Amino acid sequence: MITAQSILRVVEPIVFGRRWLGIAFLGTLTLWFGWHAAQVQVDAGFAKQLPQSHPYMATFNKHKDAFGGANLISIALINQQGDIYNEAFLQRLKQVTDEIFFLPGVDRSRVTSLFTPGVRYIEVVEGGFKGGDVVPRNYQPSPQMFQHIRDNVGKAGIIGRLVSTDQRGAMIVAELLELDPSTGEKLDYRAVAARLEEIRQQFEDPQIKVHIIGFAKIVGNVTDATTEVVMFFAIALLLTALLLRLYCASWKLSILPLACSLVAVIWEFGLMHIFGLGLDPFAILVPFLVLANGVEHGIQMVNAWADEITTYKSTSLKASINSFRRVAIPGTAALMTDVFGFVTIALIDIRIIQEMAINAAFGMAAIIVTNKWLMPILLSVVSISNHEEYTRRLNWREQLGNRVWRLVAKATDTRYAIGILVVTAGLLSWGLWKGQDLQIGDFHEGVPELREDSRYNQDSRAITRHFTIGVDQLKIMVETEEQACVRYDVLDLMDRFAWRMRNTPGVDSVSSLPQIAKHVRKAWNEGSPDWAVLPRNQYAIVQAISPVPSSAGLQNPDCSVMPIIIFTQNHKAKTLEGIIAAAEQFKQEVEAEYQGAPPVNFALASGNVGVMAATNEVIKAEEKSILFWVYAAVGLMCWLSFRSLSALICIMTPLAVVSVLAYAVMAVLEIGLKVATLPVTALAVGIGIDFGIYTFSVLQDHLDDGLPLHEAYFKTLNLTGKAVAFTGVALSIGVITWLWSDLQFQADMGLLMVFMFLANMLGALFVLPALARFFAGPAKHITAARLRSTHADQ
To answer: What are the b/e assignments for 451-462, b being 16+ CB within 10 Å?
Structure first.
């Protein structure tokens, strides 16, 4: 049977047998990983956001070549004084259109503005219809031309879409390709965002404001904040180093946990490059999470080493060996649990989540080497210059801490334990109740990763205010047989669907072929509203739809697919759920009406809202199962470490409570569960299992020695509990500075992480021993906690 002792007998000679050779090997490996880490690039991609296994994405991919995808950029020019029908504004609009047309990565066939040929008007004249470009190709500025364009805009029906409702602004819409068509390489979203900002700076002035939105611009804004993010990381590191100095009473010992954790981050980045991964802008917090976890494990090693130095007067080498025996197995078990936990998150079929999970797993795996191999070697060669003074400072700290630990140790007394468990049950009940308010998706309008007053969100609000189409669109693909656009029953179903969606809360407007056909039929009949209906006669239908070209995006050339475009008021989770539910309900009604054989298939969904809805549904469907597998991995590692049901109860119960409370806190803070936040919430499990395993392993060790529970826990607090408390407080202080970040995402994660650090710390220090009062006792076999060496044999 494999035991902790048998593992240590194999591992110890590797770690300590050739220490300088080990340092040289790990140093060389770090340089190699560092060389790879230096080549890691920011890797943003719209396709990475897509849940490819979702049925909506099948529809999206099937029709994106014919009707476009969802990776759009929109540029709105708004005249601050007057309308758009003047030389200065139209010249500016044409110049910006030309700049966007030649923007790297733009699909030039899908650039739309008043100055692109596909934007046409149709009018009824004597003898039939007359049409042409809204802005004539022989455009020359003159009062007559401006009036002509004004008339054409009204005839084209583009007010609210390409021209603002007050006619003071105009829109340019373009679609980006995932691969740059000129180079064949992946599109550099940072370069696109930078060029868009250059266009803004070039063409914006006090008279004409330029508003830009789109995925590329979001990536650019988040990437632009990288310098600020690094600054906050540096502040967190500095604060952590200062607190470590107070805790360790030595600069040498305070630097070691940080140094080894930074090495782990270097290894993480190196592994990312080796496996062909980059750092997504929405994953910029993952390296800090790895760093924080490394510091936590490093503090446990330093704490055990200092105890050996002061209590047993050991040499540095002897103290390092004994410390290794104490914390190597439980620490490695905790880290392996973290690795398995993040790997399970990678089961979600959204590439960006998979990359973030693999990224975090690389970091946790690196910590196993840097903190369980490099750290003990470095501690074995560290010397304390003034041993007596160092011992005196630590003893003074211990005496001060003993008063606090005596109070905390009362958590094992029956009456206090019952009180703690009652409070925990109350918090759990509140968490389960409040957690029901957690939304899968966004709580707010705009982009939640950015501050409400950010330029991007201001641009988004400005476009929404001036244009009726909104910035979010859902495309329902009506799939049927060829030339079905001349069938009344097909168009009638589409019109009924459009009417239902138009009257659904959250929908701003709807555009469809039947709607245009009714306007054309009205125009054929002197504009009488009585004729704004779909004709039943096939020839009359042909007459109504023939003026609508396939380039308008409302039907493909053979009329077998006709999109219904729904412009939503926002992309809040509740808005999307209501609209999708209404669409699905209508589909079911049609299925029932035609007894399962309707003439059309309303295929959901495309557009950026379709992507968001699919993503939300995948996260909602997978989140519970992923949580199950995470806890299954945690339970398995706990069982392998302790072979004890009491260990499972004492370690996993606080963990589960904190996970529930984390969701409740997200609901209170109005942080939605989405692609960017799901991997971060998994950190609650990772940190909690580390705290729990370290605390329970030492507690079980003392219980196995025959100590009563209260005294065993008091000794646990003096050895490991103080490190847990310090880690929770120090890391919380480090990330509290994130609240002042310009990124709303970083500020939200700062609040959430402060909660998780402190809640897991309190769970390990109070809830775990309270449970131990009723479940823990001396083990009947050798557990992983039996790691304490017998100092006589050294």
So the answer is: beebebbebbbb
Which residue, 416, 413, 300, is CA-closest to 711? 413
Please work out, in degrees rounded to the nearest 5, the angle formed at the alpha carbon of residue 296 by the alpha carbons of 619 and 641: 75
Q: Are 461 and 446 in contact (CB under 8 A)?
A: yes
Q: What's the predicted TM-score (pTM) here?
A: 0.80
**Complete DSSP assignment for 741-754:** -S-HHHHHHHHHHH
Dihedrals phi, psi of 672, to nearest 5 degrees:
-80, 150
Bridge partners of 163?
159, 170
As a whole number of angstroms, the distance between CA 318 and CA 667 comes to 50
d(CA 638, CA 652): 9
Spatial distance between the Cα atoms of 186 and 176, rounded to a whole number of angstroms: 11
pLDDT, tens digit, 9 for 90 and up, residues 116-160: 887 887 776 666 667 788 888 888 889 999 999 999 888 887 888
DSSP, residue by residue, 561-609: EEEEEEEES--BHHHHHHHHHHHHHHHHHHHHHTTT--S-EEEEEEHHH
The token pair that represents 307 in the structure block: 């105890």
| Average pLDDT of the chain to the nearest whole number | 84
Checking DSSP bridges between strand 120-125 and strand 507-511, what pairing results, if any? unpaired
> Residues 568, 506: contact at Cβ < 8 Å?
yes
CA atoms of 68 and 110, how far apart (whole Å)? 8
How would you classify the pairing of strands 72-79 and 169-175?
antiparallel
Contact in structure between 193 and 217 (CB atoms under 8 Å): yes
Please report which residue ranges of 178-285 form alpha helices under DSSP H.
Answer: 189-203, 215-224, 226-248, 251-274
Q: Could you please report the per-residue DSSP string of 120-185?
A: EEEEEETTEEEEEESS-TT----HHHHHHHHHHHHHHT-BTTTB-TTSSEEEEEEEB-SB-TTT-S
The angle, 0 to 180 degrees and rounded to 10, between the axes of the packed helices 226-248 and 722-736 is 150
**What would the two tokens of residue 197 be?**
């900002």
* pLDDT greater than 70 at residue 86: yes
Q: What is the pLDDT of residues 602-617, one digit of tens each?
A: 988 888 888 888 888 8
